[in-house]
Amino acid sequence: MSETEERPTNCQYCGYGCALLARVKDGRVTGVRPDPSRYPYGSAVMASCKRWPMNVEALDAPDRVNVPLRRVGARGSGQWERVSWDEALDDIAARLRSLSAEHGPGVLASAIGGPHASYWPLHRFMNLFGSPNNMGIGQICWNPRIWMDLVTFGWTVELDVVRGLTSCVVVWGTNPAQSDNSAFWQHLQTFAQEGGDLVVIDPRRTEVAELASVWLAPRPGTDTMLALALLHVIIEEGLEDRTFVDAWCHGFDELVEVVAPWTAEAAAEACDVDADDVRKAARLIAAGPTAFVSGRGIDQVGAAVGHIHRAICCLRAVTGNVDRPGACVLAEAPDFASELAMEMSDEAAPSCRDLSLNRGRTPLQCPEGYDALREITEKLGRTAPRRYLTSAHPDLVLHAMETGEPYPIRALIVQATNPLVTYGGSARVRRALEGLDLLVVLEYRLTPTAAIADYVLPIAGAIERPMLQVHGGVANAAYGGPAAVEPYYERKRDYDVFRELGLRLGQTDAWPQATLEEAFAAELAPAGVSWEQFCETGLYWPPPAFNKHERIGDDGRPAGFATTTGKIELASEFLPRFGGFRTPQPVLGGHMGESRSAAGAAGNPSGASEAAADAFPFTLVTGARRQPYNASMYFENPRFRAACSAPRATVSPKLAARLGLAPGAPVEVSTRCGSAKYLLDVADMRDDVVSVDYGWWHPEWPCGDGRRGGADESSANAMTVCAIEEPLVGSWSYNALPCAISPTADQLSWTSVEGDAPDSVKQ
Ligand SMILES: Nc1nc2c(c(=O)[nH]1)N[C@H]1C(S)=C(S)[C@@H](COP(=O)(O)OP(=O)(O)OC[C@H]3O[C@@H](n4cnc5c(=O)[nH]c(N)nc54)[C@H](O)[C@@H]3O)O[C@H]1N2
Ligand SMILES: Nc1nc2c(c(=O)[nH]1)N[C@H]1C(S)=C(S)[C@@H](COP(=O)(O)OP(=O)(O)OC[C@H]3O[C@@H](n4cnc5c(=O)[nH]c(N)nc54)[C@H](O)[C@@H]3O)O[C@H]1N2
Ligand code: SF4
Ligand SMILES: [Mo]
């Protein structure tokens, strides 16, 4: 028996990775508490976060998968046999080898999820296997913003909100109160309380909108027109930063032409907002320093995504808010190993390039787009991660699974994602995955996706594994810490699974480090920091400098920006090479691929045909974030379920009255793709919008009982598709979809009492 000791480790229930101290006795954790001595720690964050206490119970949770499982019955029947790791990995490797021999290495696809784990081990494995077919969640989450920042500024930017310096923060299509219950949300509240101006752009009156100086609630999908109008007002009133524009911006006159028709009044009509509010917001933005933060409200509107991000880049630039203290900072290249080096993309088999399904379909998000970008950003010494920026489009991967075109994809490895719930077109995803020869899922529990696997491999989670979060290596910042214990039962870390599979498939030189700690140590080594030193503070972050474009280089000239012209490209010289526009265009978002220009939509703001407008008179927003859940996670927690027991469709009180429905009524929401059932809730928001939760399933229902975990009942993604809508990156729409809502007589599985009023959780 050993003495109880406290060991440093991290919570990993959201991207923050807060520092914890775990009480450990005989290799088992008996409790955790926040660790104020290491990064990241915030007393207010820990006080308001409901998740971190789950860390202890999760280690021994009855529904955790603890041993490798192999399917024995029909797919999805819930019949498994326990196998040893060697048996599982030998068989998987043998089957991958023979599938690759028959069809080529593209036969294997993989899928990854949100930032739950390090993904370079999977990327490395796929590179050396020779397959480009990893489906990330990037196209629908952060890729469009990163791409547009990269091509406009030569690198990515992060906001910099400083008390007493920043005068305005624009919060565009993001609700940090629910999605980011962290230091940033606390910071934003203080900023507003101290008199800072918030401009909030969201069709729902969120908690952050309540703090705003100006709340603009545009029709979902019309944000590009709003952005063009903000630019119009700034330019018309001569509020641009002339000196900065003259010195550092390329194509100002072209931008002036594009925004000319987009007066505040034109935007008021197209977006259904108040013209005076547009002018007021424009003046606040121009006053500066102004920081911008955006989220899935504008990332998940299909065709318009590139344009809206380009327009925001232009707003930052013409107001001089680029790499400026109190506004935003252009990140520095990491001192530690680049993501590119970790994922070993330069060592990839040639097939990785040749087999790209994205080529010709999503011309930026493909090998050629990446190579052109790399050539430019490397001029100023920064290299972007390749696999994230070339990840395969799910529509194309699913198509290859379904049809064998352009070549067959017959196997899939899934790490840290639950595509049967979170991908657009969930029924299609299920059918495609059910038809595979080999489906391997690395998981904590039997999710709807794991339930149909051939192998479920038990994965070690927080506390049982170290963490090194570098956000794709786009900044010189890393945080994390050690594991407090070895993995419980027979669980392994994701890294070990890819390493051991890789070694079985001849990737002998690629995996020199036997443990994840050694691999992290190798990653940090170029920065001159050992893993142990790093773990003492949990942070590697040399504060970045600002105004780096003014730095004088060896040639006696200022560094400028890593773009084709060396300036910020209001008019892009890069995008037209890939079929894109030089300037942001007034494109309407959403509407399931039925994208069209705003001009065509002016008389018909929903952008849909008359008949469709009759059938689907409202606009759907899916997946607005809510604590305490996260995507399809944490529904197994009984306390969470007691407090927040059913998925909701939320409308304004006026719309509820118009529909003749009371809060708590079971409703069916539908789009032209499908429908899902919810309980009705009301909140302050636009009267033409319906907002539905996403991610819901019943982890407590036995796997294989025919009900598929209940994920089909309230599946937001029964109502969406993952088509290529944005033409350069391939983003699709989870927001701004034409929809209908009506009462349903069905009893929902979420409530035992019919018509139970949903619990009141704030937006
Ligand atoms: N609790 C919780 N936190 C999470 C997650 C989770 O699932 N649950 N997921 C994590 C992930 S993967 C991500 S990507 C982030 C996302 O984080 P956020 O981007 O902050 O996501 P939301 O909180 O849904 O905020 C998006 C807002 O956009 C608004 N919106 C919808 N359509 C439009 C539109 O057309 N225009 C505009 N201007 N706004 C619109 C919605 O009303 C909503 O308030 O959250 C992360 N954090
Ligand atoms: N309709 C609609 N659909 C959406 C969205 C929306 O707003 N609306 N949002 C989209 C966005 S932005 C995102 S990012 C995606 C999120 O989609 P996903 O990433 O698919 O969703 P999660 O529920 O986060 O899935 C994580 C799964 O991985 C497991 N897991 C967690 N950590 C680890 C780990 O370290 N290793 C392994 N092997 N497994 C782990 C969890 O148990 C869980 O089952 O959803 C997208 N889908
Ligand atoms: S879930 Fe809570 S404690 Fe855990 S990392 Fe996120 S904010 Fe920190
Ligand atoms: Mo995301």
Automatic annotation (TrEMBL):
SMART domains: Molybdop_Fe4S4. Coiled coil: none annotated. It holds the Pfam family Molybdopterin. Keywords: Iron, Iron-sulfur, Metal-binding. Residues 4-63 form the 4Fe-4S Mo/W bis-MGD-type domain. The keyword Metal-binding applies. One of its GO terms (molecular function) is metal ion binding. PANTHER family: OXIDOREDUCTASE YYAE-RELATED, TRIMETHYLAMINE-N-OXIDE REDUCTASE. This is Molybdopterin-dependent oxidoreductase.
